Amino acid sequence: MEDKYDILAIGRSSIDLYSNDVGSPFPEITSFGAFVGGCPTNISVGTRRLGLRSSVLTAIGDDPVGEFLVKFLNDERVETQYIVKKPGHRTSAVVLGIEPPDKFPLIYYRDNCADIELTIDDVMASPIATSRAVLISGTGLSKEPSRSATLYAAEQAKSMERQVFLDLDFRADQWHDPRAYGINIRSALRNIDIAIGTEEEIKAASLTDVSQVSVEDSQISNPNIEGDMDAAISNILIAGPKALVVKRGSDGADICLKDGKVINAPPFPVEIYNTLGAGDAFASGFIYGILNDWNWQKSARLGNATGAIVVTRHGCANFMPTMPEVNAFIEQRGGL
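The structure corresponding to this sequence follows.
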């Protein structure tokens, strides 16, 4: 069967309301811009703008916000026919402040949200069999029925010999207990080829000593999860993936391989405007490289470039770069 898509991204989607008052404390914001967000949705747009054939499996409510999201994706030529409506549930929303260089408060509105209602039946109707690769994310594992649907998608993709990517996507306030995040991530790893995450996400995913984190930490957006990074990386690689990509922001990225080798991809330094969305931009560039048979370092360098471009911009999906933009950015800085 011929592959119809390069990447099927599965999981959350949202309307993102970004502050137009850059630098203002959150209580002083006077207006917001409406954009599209959600880790897998961002990656579907990011990879599409780079030239891949991208599709997305998410869920929306029977509401105007869902229509807003689908229109944007259609305009971007992301395949939307697998997006399902969940009557009685709402399309997700996120509200975000922008106070560069290091303060970007965000609030999730995901009570009764539609995308967490994705089911195994929705996955069965999706184009896993005709997609070269599948991407799942950590937040998709946070609640049922999305948890079982996400695990099933990874299992099916692996059995069909599709490349399976996992964005660790740790959002602590979406879990009843941050320790549950690690338990569920580890249950998925046997079906993952390449995992991508920050140091914090990797430590949270590999957390086996539950005494290190209290239930109260689930109320903190970014709990301080202690632990040895080398041990955390080892724990994840032992569980299944052939590679773990560590996003290090302004320090670039490391690709940690199962044989113990670590490949560093240097960054492209830029002035930070907004870090939100940069990780999904990185994943988009990295996945593009891997699916075009580039080596680890070149793929991650492209990811560093796409991420660097987005940190100079206002938001997530709407601001993903095109390949001509990326090429111009890279050429100005000496190439990959």
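Residues 5-13+40-90+114-332 form a domain with the UDP-N-acetylmuramoyl-L-alanine:D-glutamate ligase fold (CATH 3.40.1190.20).
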